[in-house]
């Protein structure tokens, strides 16, 4: 009675596996600043709960497998602001961005096929792929380049006949990189030349700073039949617990195929969809204030990091993450050390070590992801503790 | 740019694929009695919405990947009534019974492995398996036997080295069969002899009629390490739109493996879990009244069917389905004919043709599933229409 190879070979979530150490620190009475998870502290718009509270059907029935038409309509309107023009059957509502990714990968890749992913990447791309026997091949991006893409030739060399799709997040998790219009165009060109899909995880679309422009893969006309856009209300509206995601594509035959998977799991929760309809109607000024807040935090984290000798970190311009090279032997050991053995006045910090964000063995060992999801004061305290921790860590490398 | 073989080979939901014909009938002004889907009309207990309405956190945050401890506690108490004794880490909360099935199949079977399923079966067993390259092998059960299992030797012959698990629903969808204690014991014995898991879909556990006893696979001590129990609030509490399911198993190593899949999709919706906690605390007398209602309906359907010449249907004793042999050439054609060309005073009926519930080609062509999820009056009208439809169908076989 054995478990499947695909499940035993699946790696544990590198973001969640250090949780027991955090629990241990708390049990010792330490306060832990969580810079390790992307759980924003921004308030969820009230409209979400208000609409759910007024639900008064006597029977909580199945919804449609593709999602509620009203929610799809609200998303169609949302996309128009970004010059994307979708129809009802171009959008499927999913259980979070997670299910959107899983279904997209199943739809384009068979067992033993490959997806090509710029690394470091959102670790669950790897998890979902392992679960369905798809191999993750990677395009290595470097801290020194602010995690922008390498040149076309380098990417081309990573493509082989098994490659079925690019999968990437833009703005990037864990890097905070925002790809330039030229980078987006380069991947689009490669997708056409090598007949690939592009699974574009754009759940952080709004979180772009410094007045930078943003190019969605949904804006490149000539690849509209090969682009699959993954979205979610989790980060966009600080509603991680709603688990409402979506797949959008103008490839109608692809959408018909993915609909079969949606029918298999019957539907997405009715109430959460009712709430999400209102979220997608949130006025634009919501993002203005939220972005101002995140940009301020980004500045705190970026400036604090550059104030620590030996840290390498180019200024990230999107999402709410920084992936920094630290002057330590091993970021996982360092994180455990901070939780077990270090504190400043009874307070310490938890990071997400980056090794698990790479497919290439050995990379990311001295890197960690910092999520700037705490308020300004807490963030300043946390960064100060991090600085002192690096100064005091026995195995620092400078 | 091709789609994966696994998605193109996945069959469309046989329950949902005739929906366009129903829409057509409605567009013509016909009333359609839906006997085709398992959407109960029973009211969801008020406690569900009441608890959700009182949620007042400012941020709708991620829940734990394994599910809320309070919900798991409520389920532990629920299982005690059935003499099943689970601990916190024996239960994982999932996005409906659907995700519970998908994760269980991924955990026990690799690509090209097989699961062994009594047919006719819940069609999504097939859907999920195709999506992850697992083959469905079947044990044929017959209308003449009330869809009870064949003898041990027949089942044994269907087991081969690729077989990893039995997957079955008990009480049965689409058959309404409730396996006897001897049948449950026989499968348990086979699972031990051939080193198999048992994925026991027991979402209809409460819906057993005629005062019959019920044996859960969770009651067979000697297979407790190989039993995976799938549950859901959908049918139990008429809360299909909540999408709260679960996996329960005393195999702690297995649960650790499946937890990795749960971590990959982060969590199940927070609000729906809050509602489900209250559902699992629903007093027992809820089931007494609900069961009385379903038993009455079962009797109406069973007696009406046996009043139609040429119909074969043994009395089903559980769930809320009947799978009947009809005197027609092809139940799918017959269903389409009822929707397109037949009515009694502007009213017609929709069934779920059973061919898609079989893995063996050719079986089930003259069978259909009837879900008795309508009130007494509507059900009587619908069964009367069905009788007249069979009398008038040009391709009936008697």
Keywords:
Aspartate Aminotransferase, domain 1; alpha/beta; 398 residues; 15% strand; Aspartate Aminotransferase, domain 2; globular; homodimer; three-stranded antiparallel beta sheet
Tell me what you see in this structure:
- The structure is a homodimer of 398-residue chains.
- Chain A has 398 residues and is an alpha/beta fold.
- The first copy, chain A, folds into 2 domains: 5-43 and 285-392, Aspartate Aminotransferase, domain 1 (Alpha-Beta Complex), CATH 3.90.1150; 46-279, Aspartate Aminotransferase, domain 2, CATH 3.40.640.
- Chain A has 14 helices and 12 strands.
- The longest helix of chain A has 22 residues, at 285-306.
- Chain A is globular, with a radius of gyration of 21 Å.
- The relative contact order of chain A is 0.18.
- Chains A and B meet through helix 1, helix 3, helix 5, helix 6 and helix 10 of A and helix 1, helix 3, helix 5, helix 6 and helix 10 of B.
Multimeric organization? homodimer
Q: Give, in order, the helices and strands of chain A.
A: HHEHHEHEHEHEHEEHEHHHEHEEEH
* Total count of helical runs of at least 4 residues of chain A: 14
Number of DSSP strand runs of chain A = 12
CATH uppermost class of the largest domain in chain A = Alpha Beta
The percent range for helix content of chain A is 25-40%
Strand content of chain A: 15-25%
Rounded to the nearest angstrom, the distance between the terminal CA atoms of chain A is: 50 Å
CATH architecture of the largest domain in chain A: 3-Layer(aba) Sandwich
Extract low-pLDDT stretches of chain A: none
State Rg of chain A: 21 Å
Number of domains of chain A: 2
SS-based class of chain A:
alpha/beta
Keywords (chains A, B): Aminotransferase, Pyridoxal phosphate, Transferase
InterPro entries (chains A, B): Aminotransferase_I/II_large (IPR004839), AspAT/PAT-like (IPR050596), NHTrfase_class1_PyrdxlP-BS (IPR004838), PyrdxlP-dep_Trfase (IPR015424), PyrdxlP-dep_Trfase_major (IPR015421), PyrdxlP-dep_Trfase_small (IPR015422)
Domain Aminotransferase class I/classII large (chains A, B): 31-344
Pfam families (chains A, B): Aminotran_1_2 (PF00155)
């Amino acid at each position: 009675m054995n478990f499947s190879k695909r499940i035993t070979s699946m790696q544990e979530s590198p973001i969640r596996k250090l949780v027991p150490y955090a629990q241990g620190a708390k049990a010792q009475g330490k306060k832990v600043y969580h810079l390790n998870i992307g759980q924003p502290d921004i308030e969820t718009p009230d409209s979400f709960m208000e609409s759910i509270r007024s639900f008064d059907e006597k029977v909580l029935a199945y919804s449609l497998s593709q999602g509620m038409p009203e929610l799809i309509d609200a998303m169609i309107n949302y996309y128009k602001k970004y010059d994307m023009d979708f129809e009802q059957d171009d959008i499927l509502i999913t259980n979070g961005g997670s299910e959107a990714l899983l279904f997209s990968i199943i739809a384009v890749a068979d067992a033993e096929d490959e997806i090509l992913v710029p690394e470091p990447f959102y670790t669950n791309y790897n998890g979902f792929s392992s679960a369905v026997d798809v191999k993750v091949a990677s395009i290595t991006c470097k801290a020194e380049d602010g995690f922008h893409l390498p040149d076309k030739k380098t990417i081309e060399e990573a493509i082989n006949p098994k490659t079925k799709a690019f999968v990437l997040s833009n703005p990037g998790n864990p890097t905070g990189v925002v790809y330039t219009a030229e980078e987006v165009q380069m991947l689009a060109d490669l997708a056409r030349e090598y007949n690939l899909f592009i699974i574009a995880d754009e759940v952080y679309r709004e979180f772009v700073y410094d007045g930078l422009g943003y190019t969605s893969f949904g804006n490149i006309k000539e690849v509209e039949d090969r682009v699959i856009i993954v979205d979610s209300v989790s980060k966009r509206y600080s509603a991680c617990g709603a688990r409402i995601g979506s797949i959008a594509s103008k490839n109608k035959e692809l959408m018909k195929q993915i609909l079969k998977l949606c029918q298999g799991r019957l539907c997405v929760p009715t109430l959460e969809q009712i709430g999400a309809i209102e979220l997608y109607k949130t006025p634009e000024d919501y993002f203005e204030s939220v972005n101002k807040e995140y940009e301020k935090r980004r500045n705190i984290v970026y400036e604090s990091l550059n104030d620590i000798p030996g840290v390498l970190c180019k200024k990230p311009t999107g999402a709410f993450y920084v992936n920094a090279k630290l002057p330590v032997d091993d970021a996982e050991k360092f994180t455990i050390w901070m939780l077990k053995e270090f504190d400043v006045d009874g307070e310490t910090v938890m990071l997400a070590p980056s090794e698990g964000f790479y497919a290439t063995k050995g990379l990311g060992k001295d890197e960690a992801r910092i999520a700037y999801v705490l308020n300004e004061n807490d963030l300043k305290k946390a960064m100060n503790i991090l600085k002192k921790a690096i100064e005091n860590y026995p195995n620092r490398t400078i």
